[in-house]
Specification:
This is Glycoside hydrolase family 2 protein. The chain is α+β, with helices and mostly antiparallel strands. It contains twelve helices and 48 strands. It folds into five domains: 155 residues, Jelly Rolls (Sandwich); 107 residues, Immunoglobulins (Immunoglobulin-like, Sandwich); 282 residues, Glycosidases (TIM Barrel, Alpha-Beta Barrel); 123 residues, Immunoglobulins (Immunoglobulin-like); 108 residues, Immunoglobulins (Immunoglobulin-like), CATH 2.60.40. α3 runs parallel beside α4, α6 crosses α7 and α7 crosses α9. It is globular.
Length: 852
Amino acid sequence: MRLFYLLLSILSVFSSCTNNNEGISRVIEDFNYDWRFYLGDEPEAYKLSFNDTNWTVLNVPHDWSIEEGYQKEGETAASSGFVPGGIGWYRKSFLLTEADKNKQISIQFDGVYNNSTVWINGKLLGTRPNGYISFIYDLTPHLKYDGTPNMIAVKVDHSAYVDSRWYTGSGIYRNVKLIKTGLLHIDHWGVQITTPKVSKELAEINIKTILKNAGEINDKEITLDYLIVDENNVAVARQRETIDNKSLSDEVTIQMNTPKLWSIETPNLYTLKVEVYQDDVLVDDVSETFGIRTFNFDANTGFSLNGKHMKIKGVNLHHDAGAVGAAVPKSIWEYRMKKLKSIGTNAIRFAHNPHSPELLEVCDELGLLVMNEAFDEWSEPKAKSKVYLGDNAASKEASKAYPEVFNEWAERDLKDLIRRDFNHPSVFMWSIGNEIEWTYPHYSETFNEVNPNSSAAGYQYVPVYDAKKIAPVFEKNIDSIDPLVTIAKKLVKWVKEEDDTRPTVCGSVLPSIGMVSGYGTAMDVYGFNYRQADYDIAHQTYPDLKILGSENWGTYSEWKEVIDRDFVAGIFAWTGFAYMGEAGPWPRKGLNISFFDFAGFKTPRGHFFETLWKKEPKVYMVTTPNSESEFSYTEKDGWKFEMQLTPPPVWNMLRLWEWYKVYPKWNYKNDEAIIVQAYTNCEEAELFLNGTSLGKQKLADVVEDDHILKWLVPYTDGELKIIGYNNGIKADEYSLTSQKEISKIEITTNKTTIDADGYDVAVIEVKLLDQKGTLITDNDTKITFSIEGEGKNIGVDNGWEMNTQPHKTNEIITHNGKAVLYVQSTKNNGNINIKALVYDKNIENEVTVVSN
C-alpha cells in the first residue's frame, strides 16, 4: 500500500510537470443564454442574413407550450394536456477568435421537442425527429474566426400537436452546450465504465476509451492517464497507458481496494478523470462520475443489490414537472426525488422515453435505481385522444408521431441513449418498450379468444398460460412472421451491442401471449403491466422467468401481491408525481393519480404508501361525507365498497387508477355522517373527537383487503385526532381541526440559500391558515406574489388537475389552501425577498432566500 501511494505521488508530479506545456484544451461552454425565439414558421430563418431583431430574446431550456398555456379550443388535445404545439424557431449568434482555430467545435442538445433541424451559418447540419434524445453536431467545417458572428438556427416542428399520449412540451427544453476540443480528443460519450468484480475488499474498474482524431495521423506517442478520486477529491487509484495512434482506443482494468459501494442507503460516487497526452502534452481531458455496485435478478428470489435482497419500491415518472412544463431545472428534480425518497421510494421508471441527464445525476446522488426506457411506440402508433381519455379521436395529421420514422431512427436513438447514460450507477435496466402489444391487434385478438369471458383491455380476468391453447390461436391470427417479436429481438441485440452488463426489460400488458410468441423470452426480465393476477401462474408455467411489476396500480392489494411472493422483484406504481396529458374532458388537464400532486404536495395515496414502504411509525387520516363515499357501513354487513365510476364520457376503467374520494379536512355540517379513513403502519390506532375516544382498532383485524382503518362519525366542530400504538405505547399521532376564517398566510422555502448560477431554484410554499394555525381548505382565494432582489419567478401552481390558470404569472388561486412559487436565481449574489399577499385582504407574509 505504501508503494502504491509513492507511485501515485510520482505520477502526480510527472503530470503537473507536463501540464506546463499546454493548458487543458477541452472547454464546455454554457450555450443556454441569449437565444432569439419566434413562434411560427419563418422559412428563411436559417439564413445568416435573416433579420431576427424583432424576435423574443430568452434563455433555454424553454418550453413554449407551457408558456402559451392551456386552451380548450383550437389545436390542443386531451392526450397532450390541452396545450398548443406548432412550429418555433431559435437563433443564436456567437463569436470565435483565432485562438479557436485548429479545434474541434461541436454543439450538444440534450433534448429538443421535436423534429428539430439545425443550421450553422446557413449550412444544414441535420434533422433529429426524436424529441427526447440528446444529440451533437460538428460545427467545425462551417465556422468563422474573423470576429464576425456565427449563427446557429434551429427549427422545431411540433405541428403534430397530439403526437403523444401525454404532455411533451415544445422547443429547446433541455440544456445546450458548446464543446471545444483539440483535433485529437476523446470521442463523444467515449468513456465507458463497468465494475465486473465487486466485493467489500476489492473492485475491478474496467474502462473503455474511444478517441477521435480530426487531424492528420502522425507518429506522436499517445498516452492516457486514468485517475479515480472519491467524493472528497482524494485519489484512490491511478494508471497510465500508451495506446496505438491508429486504433485510437484503449481498455484498461484498475483495481481499487476497499471500495465504497453505491447503494440505496449510501449512494457513494467516484469520479474518473481521463487525460489524453500527445508526446507528453495534455490535449484533452474528460471526467465521468460513476458508482461501484452489483445487482442481480433471480427467478425465485427476486432482486438483490450488492448481495442484499430487497423489493423494488418504484414509481413511474413522466418528464414534465407541473408549472415549468418540460423545461425542468435540476434543482426541481432534486426537490421531487427527495420527496419520493421520503416516503420510501427506491426506484424510478422513466415513462416512457429518455429523460434529462440532470435527473439521472440526481438519482445517482440520492440513491434511486432507474429503469431507463427508450420507446412508448415502435413502428405502429397508439391512438391519441382529442376531447377525453379514450375517445381516440385525434386526427391522423395532428397525431403523426415517432412510428413514422422508427425503422430509420430506432437503432441510432437507442444506442445514443445507452452511450449517454452508460456510466450512471442508478441505471440498472434498459427498457425497450411500453405496452407495445396494443399496437399489434393479433395479440389482443388471441388473448380475447383464449379468454372468452375476459377483455384484454379490461384488466380483470383469470389468466390462461397453456401454450397448447394459445399457440394455435396466435398462429391463426397472424399472417406471417410476428413483427413485434422481430423488432424486439433487434432492439435487444442493439442494446447488447452497447451494454451487456445490464438486463433488458419491457412493460408487457399481455405477458401470457408474449411468452408463447417469443416476446417475453427475448427479454432478460419480463415486466408485467397491471398483470398481478398473472404472477403465480406465470411463475408456475415458466419457473426460470424473472418477473417484475413494471407498471402497477397504487393500491395495497398490488403491493401485497409482491411482498407475498419472493419471486416478484418489485413494482413501479403509477405514478410518483401527477403529470399533464392523458386526461380530459376540459378542464381536466392531467391525472393526479399519484403520490405527489403537480405542485409537489403529498397526496393521501402518498401518505398511504409511506405507511407501506417505511418502517418509521406513521398515522394519517382523511375524511369523506357518507353521502359521497364509495364506502358504506351497517351493523349487519360491516364495511362495504362499491366501485364508483367517473361519469361518461370518461373511460370507465380510469377508476382503477384513481384514489378514494377523500378530503384532508374536518369541516362539515353538524351531525353530518362522516367516514374517517386512517392509514398507518402501527399495530393499532385510536380515534378521538374533542378528547373522547371513538374506539381503538387493530390493523391486523381489517377485514377488507385495503389496509385502511375506518370509522363512521357524526360531525362535531373541534379536533379529530388519531393516535397510533405499537406494543401499547403511543408511536405517532395526527390531527384535523375545524376551520375558521382566514387569518394569516404561512410562507416557507425548501432552501434558505441557493447558488447564484442562474439555474438554482427555491420552492416557495404558501398555506392559508386561521387564527389557530389550521389549514383552510374550503375557502380558496387568490394569492399575489412579488419578488425583489436577485431572483425571478419561473412558475406558480396549486397542484390541482383542474387548474388551467397560467403558470407564468405572479398570481394563483389556491387549492385546498395551498400553492407554490418557483424562484430561480440570477447570476448575481444578493438577497431574494419573496412576499405573498392574500388577494383583497390585508394579509401578507414574506420569506428571504440568499443567492450566492
